[in-house]
Specification:
Structural class: alpha/beta
Shape: globular
Distance between the termini: 22 Å
Order of helices and strands: EHEEEEHEEE
């Protein structure tokens, strides 16, 4: 069976993106490859081997359009409220914590935040299937 290994997102300022993903989610550089026309940076945390690949196309100055097909990345944390407070304390702008109920029972507690290039990240509290 195939193993999912990374997601790639295009960024305008690679150092800004690296800083965001490090401060917000503890992702560290595990690979950095500089080519003539583009640059690739792979980020990962010790908890998982799934990576975020940042791609910088050199010479591009205008932000990318996300269209209506891409939705979001998702991460799990122990406590949504505490994580939201931590991110807000770092100067980021996380959305409000919301709860999603199904048949009157908690299915998910979550909030969204955007990275510097406008990609949405859902921050889910570890619960149920989101563990």
């Amino acid at each position: 069976m195939a193993k999912i290994i990374h997601v790639m997102i295009r960024v305008i300022k690679i150092e800004r993106a690296i800083d965001f993903y490090n401060k917000a989610f503890g992702l560290k550089i595990v690979g950095h490859f500089d080519f003539d026309d583009f640059e690739l940076v792979y980020l990962r945390n010790p908890e998982d081997d799934f990576e975020v690949e940042l791609t910088l196309n050199k010479g591009r100055a205008t932000p990318y359009s996300h269209g209506d097909g891409f939705g979001h990345l998702a991460v799990c944390v122990d406590n949504c409220g505490a994580e939201r407070d931590r991110l807000k304390g770092l100067g980021f702008e996380p959305g409000e914590v919301k709860e999603f109920l199904r048949d009157g029972k908690l299915m998910a507690r979550f909030f969204f935040i955007q990275d510097p290039d406008g990609y949405k990240i859902e921050v889910l509290e570890r619960h149920g299937r989101y563990w």
